[in-house]
Amino acid sequence: MLAMQPTPPQRAAAALGLTRTECVDPALGPGSCAPLDVWHAEVLDRVQLAD
């Protein structure tokens, strides 16, 4: 079975979907948000900006 590879726009949309702020519990304190923010940055850093 062939695995379909996502296009750059699809990868960008997926990364942005994973990092949506409305998907984070607003009751999280700063100690819990810091590691999540680092993860968000890592996910967004993996998106290739060039075509």
Question: Explain this structure to me?
Answer:
It is built from two helices and no strands. It has helices at residues 8-18, 30-45. The longest helix is centred in the last third of the chain and has 16 residues, at 30-45. The chain is elongated, with a radius of gyration of 14 Å. The two termini are 26 Å apart.
Layout of helices and strands:
Elements: H1 8-18, H2 30-45
Please describe the structure with a list of short key phrases separated by commas or semicolons.
51 residues; 2 helices
- Count every helix, treating DSSP H or I runs of 4 or more residues as helices: 2
Head-to-tail CA distance between termini: 26 Å
Class by helix and strand content? mainly alpha
Order of helices and strands: HH
Mean pLDDT value: 83
List low-confidence stretches.
Answer: none
Strand percentage: under 5%
Spatial extent as radius of gyration: 14 Å
What share of the residues lie within helices?
40-55%
The general outline is elongated
Largest sheet: none
Total E-strand runs:
0
Outline of the structure:
Helices cover 53% and strands 0% of the residues. The protein has 2 helices and no strands.
